[in-house]
Amino acid sequence: MRLKELLNPHSLRWKIAALVAVAAVAVALAVGLLVHQSTWARAKDLARDKAISQLQDAASTYRQTGTPPTGVDVDSGSLPPVLALQARAGSFATAYDDQRIYTSRMWAATVEGGHVLSTRVDMTSDRLSIEALDRHMVYASLAALAVIVPIAALAAELPNRRLRRVAATARRISAGDLRARTGQPTRTAAFTHDEVDDIAAAFDHMADAMHQRLITEQRFTADVAHELRTPLSGLVVAAELLPDGEATDLVRDRIMVLRTMVENLLEISHLDAGVEQADLFPVPLPEVVIEAVERTGLQADMTVRQASTVETDPRRLDRIIANLLINAHRHGRAPVEITIDDATVTVRDHGPGYPPELLAEGPQRFRTGTPERGKGHGLGLTIALGQAAVLNARLDLANAPDGGATATLRLA
């Protein structure tokens, strides 16, 4: 696993760890508050009972002797005023007095013989014990978080790894490996089956269905093109027997267009099936490109920056250059420029450029994009890309900054 992926804060791993941390903090806070409140309430209750018990004994002694025992005040000036009022209104009254910095006390007061008797229980040690307990709970919670968060991140890594495998498989399929599958084992037991298994199984099922449909489409295209060759050959022969004339020339032209389309479909079906093999040998690149341009009969401005000899299949290279040149003339505008620089060939026109859909999704057969790119069947670029793949070359399509479409073929 790369360090960048490990430290990515948006990773599902850290989101799960953060959720576990928040849940642990919430539980620790709730438990801490409950323990704090219950412990402190019990300490105050014990102090209140102790203060009242001392006051009851002091009141009994005061009634009998007229003298309060040690630790009992009579009309004390430090007694909270509210407590004195409460004592005069009832038999016994208690109040908690928290000075925080100096001392904490539980007071109890009652009226006896017209005087207010009061006693107090020091709760400073209880308060300090509660504060120490709170600190210890905070330290324990932090220690638990230090253990829980890494464990949660490690536990989240297993489903993350399986999800990354699904994503990697999707990228392989997008790159052209149509037989790629997640390879995750199917869990039959209900207690071991989870949502990631459902995603992987659904993804594999979708990939199988897409692959089967693509095979069916390729087989259909090949069958149609193959079946059309026989009647098309008859049409070509019949057209040659027609008397010369304007109508005959029109018929022959349309038959040749149809013948070219059928041959292109057959070529695409062979490329899709992966049966094409390149016959590689060293050839001078400028000469092959010049010959390909001459065979098309189309005009192009040639520029050779650096001539080189490349190991390639000249027939397939000729096919790529011809299709790119025809596409530039058909869908773009003159001048069409061809630049050779070492093992790179660039074909550029000065038309409206490739439509955004083509640059984003790649060329699609029988779809030429926007109307301003002209008319056609969308087969030329598809064939060029397929032949480039057979040559292990790279064909990049882009729009020039100052206008026009650019196709760059890199043979090495």
From TrEMBL:
Which keywords describe this protein according to UniProt? Kinase, Membrane, Phosphoprotein, Transferase, Transmembrane, Transmembrane helix, Two-component regulatory system
Any one GO molecular-function label of the UniProt entry? phosphorelay sensor kinase activity
Catalytic activity annotated for this protein? ATP + protein L-histidine = ADP + protein N-phospho-L-histidine
InterPro entries linked = HAMP_dom (IPR003660), HATPase_C_sf (IPR036890), HATPase_dom (IPR003594), His_kinase_dom (IPR005467), HisK_dim/P_dom (IPR003661), HisK_dim/P_sf (IPR036097), TCS_sensor_his_kinase (IPR050428)
Q: What class of enzyme is it?
A: transferase
In terms of SMART domains, this protein maps to: HAMP, HATPase_c, HisKA
Q: Where are the transmembrane segments?
A: 137-156
Location in the cell reads: Cell membrane
Q: Principal localization?
A: membrane
**Domain HAMP per the UniProt entry, residue ranges:** 161-215
Top-level taxon of the source organism: Bacteria
First and last residue of the signal peptide: none
Cellular-component GO terms for this entry: plasma membrane
Q: Which residues form the Histidine kinase domain?
A: 223-412
EC number(s): the record gives: 2.7.13.3
**Matching PANTHER family, A to Z?**
SENSOR HISTIDINE KINASE TRCS, SENSOR HISTIDINE KINASE YKOH
- What this protein is called in its record is histidine kinase
Q: What is the source species?
A: Kitasatospora kifunensis (Streptomyces kifunensis)
